[in-house]
Automatic annotation (TrEMBL):
Species: Kribbella sancticallisti
Source taxonomy: Bacteria, Bacillati, Actinomycetota, Actinomycetes, Propionibacteriales
Keywords in alphabetical order: Cell membrane, Membrane, Transmembrane, Transmembrane helix
Protein name: Xylose ABC transporter permease XylH
Protein's UniProt keywords contain DNA-binding: no
Main location: membrane
Bilayer topology annotation: Multi-pass membrane protein
Gene: xylH
Classification via InterPro entries: ABC_transp_permease
Amino acid sequence: MPAERRLPESLKLSRAGVVYALVALVGVLALASAAQGRAPYLDPMNVSNILDQTALLGILAVSTTIVLISGNFDLSIGSVAALGAALCLSLIGPIGFWPAFLVALATGALVGLFNGVVVQYVGINAFIVTLGTMTGVRGLVLIVTDGRTVTPPAGDGASALRGIDAGRWITPNLYLVAGITVLLLAGWRLWSQRAAGPRDAALRSPAVLVPGVLGLVLVAASPALIFTVQVTQRTTYLLVLVAVAAWVLRFTTVGRRLYATGGNPEAARLSGVAVNRYKVLAFVLNGTAAAFVGVLYAARIGSINPTGLTGYELTALAAAILGGTALFGGVGSVLKSLAGALILVTLKNGFNILNLGANWQGLIEGMVLIVAAAMYTVSARRPAVRTAGE
């Protein structure tokens, strides 16, 4: 029996390929750093930088994944993020930070609502609608900023803006935490498999052996590898959003209906699911998340210019595709989209750490994206080919 058949579904290449790719990429960069005599690539400071740089892209990748799962996609989020930042910075002086922040979020939600209503109720293709929205909203950014860089006025509003993104926390020993987590996973899988079969077979199962051995190694190594990381406030926002979105998609009726809406809209409609409502809701969430990212970007940079956040929509889409999210709906995981975002950021970080030519960066990122998409496509076809051969 082929090795992949013996693996649990969650560990197969077609399901966890992006995680294997991330681990392999980090391993290659760690070896390259050691070979050049540089500081360890997994130095806590560098890991903190990678997480921090992933935060804004990761939030957009999560919301983009939800739209893709629903069967649509959105090209306007970079412009919406810039508009949210511009509105917030422009209104801090007249009305204060928190009202300006709410105006920015409401504007993002309204743009998402417009996209969803036009796509679902008027019937225009999502690519055309969101491409037009991307251009139109970027024009609004030019109007709001008057074509100039906008900065917040000095005072309490500027302090509140910095305050939503100024916190840092020190993590415990991550090797110990990861080891205990993986051991708990192995214990849960052992208990599940013992209920379904003999104990010896459960102990020999890769689903138990792999996390069990890995967990023991991490726990044993933790005293010598004290690995603490500074987690920024924007990273915390990302982790909370990923946890909530993953839970909703996996364990709630809303999540199941969203997958059904993207996978087979007609069947979902016949089952009583309000398909249009769920698709519009995905657009609204995406617009709100984009505006939130814009405000975080403004808090981090302290300003916004008319071209700010250009291209973020395509990078978020690339992260979702790296995570195996289907462009035609019904398939996707926010956790794997986060892994896809980490791959893109780790590539850029590796180029900087190893002092490689930035001219090659775009080419290599494009190749990684194509290879990842090819892996998922080939892996998805293999069962069908094997069945035909049998």
